[in-house]
Each structure stands twice: as C-alpha cells, then as structure tokens.
Amino acid sequence: MAVKIDGKMISAQIKDELKEKVAALKAEGKEITLAVVQVGNDPASTVYVGNKKKACAYIGIRSLAYELPEETTEDELLDLIQTLNQRKDVNGILVQLPLPDHIREDLVIRAIDPKKDVDGFHPQSVGMLSIGEKGFVSCTPAGIIQLLKRSGIEIEGKECVVVGRSNIVGKPMAMLLLRENGTVTVCHSRTRNLKEVCRRADILVAAIGKPKFFNHEYIKEGAVVIDVGIHRNENNKLCGDVDYDDVYPHVSAITPVPGGVGPMTIAMLMYNCVQAAEM
Ligand code: NDP
Q1: Which member of 6, 117, 119, 227 is catalytic?
Q2: What is the 3-state secondary structure (H, E, C) of the chain?
Q3: Among 10, 113, 122, 165, which is 20 to 30 Å from 141 by CA?
C-alpha cells in the first residue's frame, strides 16, 4: 500500500514548532512582524491573504495588512515597499501575486529588501539558493523538501524529475533537490519523450498546471510522486496535476490534493518570517 504523504499533519507540526520558537523569541523581547500587501480584490488572493493572516495569528507573528485598491499605481506601491523596507519593526514583506496588469511584478519583487524577502522571489534570494548559501527559499519547493524529509524519504542519490520550470516552483525545486544530493532532471513544455523521462524518476515532482495530466504511464513502479498542481474540476472539487486514482497503485508514496503540498506553502512562509527575525 502506498503512503499518502500528509501535508496537513506535517504543516501543523511545523507551525507548532514555530509557535514555540516565536514564544521563546518574545520572551527575549523580540517581536516578529509580517507586512502583507494586496492590490485589488482578486477572490483567490483574498483567500490566500486571509490564510496567511490566520497562520500568523496562530504562531504569534504580528501581521500588518495593506489592502490597496486596484487602481493603485506602480509608484504608490513602490513607495509603500520603501517605507516597509525602512521600518525597523517590520521583519518580512509579502506582496500577494498576481498584481494588476499595470504594475510590473519583477520591479516590485526587486524593490523588496532581500533581508525581508520572505517569499524568496528576489534575485538575491534566488542567487543565494543557486550558490548553496543561506537565504530565503521559495515556500512551495521548501515545503516539498520538508514533506520528503519528514516522511523519511531519502533524496540523496535518487533520480529526481521536476516537470515545470517556473521561477517560483520548478527552478527552485530543482536547486533544492540538487542541494540534497539528488540527480536532477528538469522538464518543460519543449521536453521530448516526457513519459520516458518521467519513468526514470524515483521522485517525480509534477508542477505544470494541467489537471490530472500525469497517469500511470508516466510513473516508474514504486516511485514517490509529489503533486504541486491545484485545480477545480467540473464538480468544483480540487484536483492536482496527477491523476491520483490511476497512479496510486503504482507508487510507494504520493501527496494528495488537497492536503499535500498546499498546506506546506504557508507553513514555510511562517518559517521564513521567523528566519527573517533571527537574521
Ligand atoms: P507556471 O504556469 O508558471 O509554469 C508551468 C510550467 O510547466 C512551465 O515551465 C511549462 O513549461 C511547464 N509545462 C506546461 N505544460 C507542460 C507540458 N504539457 N509538459 C511539460 N511541461 C509543461 O506554473 P507554476 O509553476 O506557477 O505552477 C504550477 C502548478 O502548481 C499550478 O497548478 C499552480 O496552481 C500550482 N501551484 C501550487 C502551489 C501550492 O501551494 N500548492 C504554489 C504554486 C503553484 P514552459 O516553461 O516550457 O512553458
């Protein structure tokens, strides 16, 4: 029987560990503050921001909410970021993406002080990861490493195939697996023989944003499958990039959707906030 990797349980464990750490920091007089900036009122973003605030409250991190109207200009947003960069009481800055079309995301990400870049998207954070130095790591891939480690799944020496090469998931995922001494292959939309490459994987990370794309034909018997995708199917139920029921009999361990990778992202954001305060 395959192991269902329980992201809900593991993320709760991490949040409880962080709660203790935050209490200890408070006892030393150190308060942690995260500034959460949202522009416009995209419903999905509002849900994500709400969940982040809830996690902060649970752990004991103070959250400052900046809910800006859709018509906020790029300059106004950059000014706010400068103010938050300068505030000594703010440890972390999170700008909820996506931003409205008239605001350049890359400019906004670069404006955040790398010491407060708790999303790990700033080029300096990405660079630190690629040269193997300490810095903030993008939360979703960092959470996947925790899922693997805390489920007793060894990475060292394993064939790891990451499908997807986005800056927030695929690329940092590949760097982290490499850091853990995996043998890493990164696939994308131009990869030839995708099935064949995926069938080499001891650990397959699916992050392409296509519902139920990966069936058993992509899976080596006994592989570990990590499903990053989140979609709503025709019945309004959540599903991932992996066809869970079809793949399940062939794997040794797999993350479900929901309850796998999803809950880890916020737990690792909280981890990064604590790291920001400790730095
Ligand atoms: P992007 O759209 O930014 O990137 C998708 C990647 O998949 C691209 O590199 C693309 O290749 C590749 N791709 C697309 N189609 C194929 C294909 N048929 N075969 C091979 N590769 C393909 O997505 P993200 O990385 O941001 O997100 C991926 C998924 O993960 C989404 O479903 C998203 O909702 C989910 N997600 C979940 C999170 C969580 O907390 N659980 C957090 C972040 C994302 P190319 O570069 O060539 O275009």
Answers
A1: 119
A2: CCEECCHHHHHHHHHHHHHHHHHHHHHCCCCCEEEEEEECCCHHHHHHHHHHHHHHHHHCCEEEEEEECCCCCHHHHHHHHHHHHHCCCCCEEEECCCCCCCCCHHHHHHHCCHHHCCCCCCHHHHHHHHCCCCCCCCHHHHHHHHHHHHCCCCCCCCEEEEECCCCCCHHHHHHHHHHCCCEEEEECCCCCCHHHHHCCCCEEEECCCCCCCECHHHCCCCEEEEECCCEECCCCCEECCECHHHHHHHEEEECCCCCCCHHHHHHHHHHHHHHHHHC
A3: 113
Strand pairing class (159-163; 92-95): unpaired
Q: Which atom of ligand 1 is nearest to the CA of 165?
A: 9
124 labelled catalytic: no
Residue 82 among the catalytic residues = no
| Confidence (pTM) | 0.97
Say how many Å lie between the CA of residue 166 and the centre of ligand 1. Answer: 6
CA–CA separation, 98 and 105 (whole Å)? 8
Structure tokens at 10: 């593991």
